[in-house]
Amino acid sequence: KRAEEALRESRAKLEAAFASMAEAIFIADAEGRLIDFNEGFVRYHRFKDREECSRTIADCPRYLEAYFQDETPAPMEMWAMPRALRGEMASDVEYMLRRKDTDETWWGSYNFSPIKDEDGRIIGAVVAGREITDRKRAEAALKEAKESLEQKVRERTLHLQILTEQLEKSRHELRKLASELVISEERERKRVAGVLHDEVAQTLAAARMRLDLLQSIPSDQKDKKTLQEVKDFLVQSIREVRALMNDLGNPLLFDLGLKSACEALGNRLMEGHPIRISCDIQDEYKHLDPDMKAMLFQVVRELLNNVVKHSRAQNAHVRIDAENGQFRVKVTDDGIGFDSKMLGVPSGEGGFGLYSIRERLTAMDGSLSIVSAPGTGTVVTAVL
Fold first, then answer.
1. What is the pLDDT of residues 184-207, one digit of tens each?
2. FRET partner for 218 with CA separation of 20 to 30 A, picked from 203, 252, 326, 354?
3. Nearest Cα to 298, choosing from 176, 196, 183?
4. How many angstroms separate the Cα of 99 from the Cα of each of 56, 105, 210, 326?
């Protein structure tokens, strides 16, 4: 009697716990037929009460066939119940269920465990399930948001790549245009120098000759003084025009070559500045392409102008050589030097010279490197 009473109490406690659990729990016999279930099972499957649940569900296989959505594989093939009835355990098995009468769908996660008697024979299985629809929806929304974000990132990356390519193309075109403008400028300077030489200078020289003729004719002292003043003005104008012709057209560059032009440039700079400039340039560069000669000379001129303006150097050296189809201009000075890392975009305080050279060299697949530090002098190398 005591044993029977203890068994009844134990069964009552088990039934109370079984009924009160929120999970959907049902028990099947050895053939897979449903023999018991709790209130959580009723709520989980959207039944009104236990009677409706009992009337609807005759056995587990038919129940599954009634509820699984049509596009899934055969229920008994994917349902883990046969595994439990063979003695296996299965955990966190997820299924999507659909009630065909209401077309309502939801997701569930199940654990399957076999039930054995005292002799170890399998007499049934217990299945505990809980609804995970909200989690599945959150996962689907997260996946969709991730895919949307990845798509936006891909689109943004592609857009940035296109903008970068367009920007690089524009920079290349601007550099090419700048290089062409420099060459056109040099040609125009040469043309203007030719006009000055062939027309203006000749006219001034002819006027001077006429004045010389007039001075040879006897006249009073006042007229001679006036003629001398006019002659002095003409001599000064002729000198200035010739200097302008040399600056514009640089006949030495195109007639005598790069070496003569650079040496003449150095001599002119030494006349106005306390510095010694030496040049190491081979004579064969005399017959270079005119545009290449003009570009090389402009690089030398800009670099030497920077030396005499900013370096406070006593000595400067210019070297031009060529190797493997590349020309290298190297200008070295023993001046005060500077922090080359501070050299950036030109501003109102200057810096356009080196910036312009660098851009022109880049347009010609060249480069400009500067090695300098305060108190150590400067070495600038241009390659084109």
1. 777 777 777 776 767 777 777 777
2. 203
3. 183
4. 12, 7, 120, 80
